[in-house]
Design brief:
Keywords: Cytoplasm, Methyltransferase, RNA-binding, rRNA processing, S-adenosyl-L-methionine, Transferase
GO cellular component, one term: cytoplasm
CATH superfamily of the largest domain: Vaccinia Virus protein VP39
Strand content: 5-15%
CATH topology of the largest domain: Rossmann fold
Binding site for S-adenosyl-L-methionine: 254-260, 278, 306, 325
Subcellular location: Cytoplasm
Number of domains: 4
CATH class of the largest domain: Alpha Beta
Bound molecules: S-adenosylmethionine
Function: Specifically methylates the cytosine at position 967 (m5C967) of 16S rRNA.
Distance between the termini: 67 Å
Radius of gyration: 24 Å
Number of strands: 13
Length: 437
């Protein structure tokens, strides 16, 4: 008999919201370990991502009926209200009954009575209107389920109107984004093949990108054979900016899982190579798998190393080009990873900036004169982007910024490529290019 999908979803939601687990990892592990039908796997995924991405909104709806209760009960209420408001095909009575059963099984008679009472009160009343909230920033925070401090940060950085655009866009489902491996095939051939089965479009911003509203592309033969891979359109721009030449020696300082490593390798001949670093063995294994699948292994060397030790390991003049795709808050990825918004470390901008600068500081010493260093992040706040570049350049007069261009001129800001998630419905992303004089 298959397991109860709502109970499975609740246990993932508890792990993420109460124990700081990553939603994608916790969900994948749970789906693998539980006995679920395909339909139930989809329901669990929908409940987990839906409830997490709307948690603050869902709590606000039941707030008038809940004074204090256990965290898991609050999560159960949120998951149930999510079904009632956002999942048209689930009858309200079924959602409530299932919640009461879970409360009885996981708690006791008193808790199930409480859950029943709250949900009956909630369903009997009209939905609250966000217009009840007089403060406009607080209203945004509740309406789009973005923690208040982060909402304030968005408004301060982008202004109110742009923040609304970003929040609205983040609420829309992510698209599937593919990159074509042009060493094995070409974009037109792959596009025509995919178009027979899926509703696909060419990327507006990446010459190697194809996008689709949905589809399980990792199941395709062309994915297994390495003709296509899954990579966001914005991160496909990094290899283009690095402009690798066939015989380049390249340092990819923060490489796992290797999306950009394999892309850059496609530009190299057998005489060129990439030294790909990361901190963890299990992450290096992901690069190896990617490299093998895309037939690029022979150009990629894997080393477990803290990038801040690169100079000690490789010495001066070791590389023609360096990519620092830095560890960052990942706030540009909120659409695909809705739990990012609730993590405390997400807004430790000073700590993140220090690591980013330390990595640049050490790796830059391994670059040849006239060498190129590209810095990128999947976040959209200045502290991790422009401020890092400004601080680095102020300390390193031997480096200069190389102004970037793009045929979509709205992607270019102060000589860098800067994409917010609303502009082309991609991840948010930042790329800067520097040259050692
Ligand atoms: C943004 S991700 C890189 C994504 C990768 N470039 C890609 O395209 O698939 C940052 C990576 O940096 C690694 N990392 C964090 N701190 C590091 C350090 N001090 N040295 C090397 N790698 C580090 C993390 O483990 C993580 O895999």
């Amino acid at each position: 008999m298959s397991n109860n999908p709502r109970r499975v979803a609740l246990s993932v939601i508890n792990d993420v919201l109460n124990n700081n687990a990553y939603a994608n990892i916790a969900l994948n592990e749970k789906i693998k370990s539980e006995n679920l039908t395909e339909l139930d796997k989809n329901l669990v995924t929908n409940l987990v991502y839906g409830t997490i991405s709307k948690k603050l909104t869902l709590d606000w709806y039941t707030k008038p009926y809940v004074k204090k209760t256990k965290k898991w009960v609050k999560n159960l209420l949120a998951m149930t209200v999510y079904q009632i408001i956002y999942m048209d095909r689930i009858p309200t009575s079924a959602a409530v009954d299932e919640a009461v059963k879970i409360a009885k099984k996981q708690g006791d008679q008193r808790l199930s009575g409480f859950v029943n009472g709250v949900l009956r009160n909630f369903t009997r009343a009209d939905f609250r209107s966000f217009d009840e909230i007089s403060d406009s920033t607080e209203k945004l925070s509740i309406q789009y389920s973005m923690p208040i401090d982060l909402t304030k940060k968005f408004v301060k950085s982008f202004g109110f109107e742009k923040t609304v655009k970003i929040f609205r866009s983040i609420e829309e489902p992510s698209r599937a984004s593919l990159r074509v491996n042009t060493t094995l095939t070409d974009v037109t051939t792959e596009f025509n093949k995919l178009a027979r089965e899926f509703d696909v479009e060419l990327s507006e911003i990446s010459p190697t990108g194809i996008v689709a509203e949905s589809g399980h592309f990792a199941d395709l033969l062309d994915f297994n054979d390495g003709l296509i891979t899954i990579q966001d359109e914005s991160s496909q721009l990094v290899a283009t900016v690095l402009d690798a030449q066939p015989t380049d020696r390249i340092l990819d300082a923060c490489a796992a899982p290797g999306g950009k490593t394999v892309h850059i390798a496609e530009y190299l001949s057998e005489a060129g190579y990439i030294e790909a670093l990361d901190l963890y063995d299990h992450k290096l294994r992901l690069i190896r798998q990617n490299a093998e699948r895309l037939h690029q292994s022979e150009k990629i060397r894997l080393t477990k190393l803290d990038a801040r030790q690169s100079f000690e390991k490789f010495g001066p003049d070791s590389f023609d080009k360096i990519l620092v795709d830095a560890p960052c808050s990942g706030l540009g990825l909120i659409r695909r990873k809705p739990d990012i918004r609730y993590r405390k470390e997400t807004t430790d901008f000073a700590d993140l900036q220090k690591v980013q600068l330390d990595i640049l500081e050490n790796t830059c010493k391994t670059l040849v004169n006239s060498g190129i260093m590209v810095y990128s992040t999947c976040t959209i706040f200045d502290e991790e982007n422009y401020q890092v570049i400004e601080t680095f350049l102020a300390k390193h007069p031997e480096f200069e910024q190389v102004p970037l261009t793009h045929e979509k001129s709205d992607l270019v800001k102060n000589g860098c490529l800067f994409i917010t998630p609303d502009a082309y419905h991609t991840d948010g992303f930042f790329i800067a290019k520097l040259r050692k004089k």
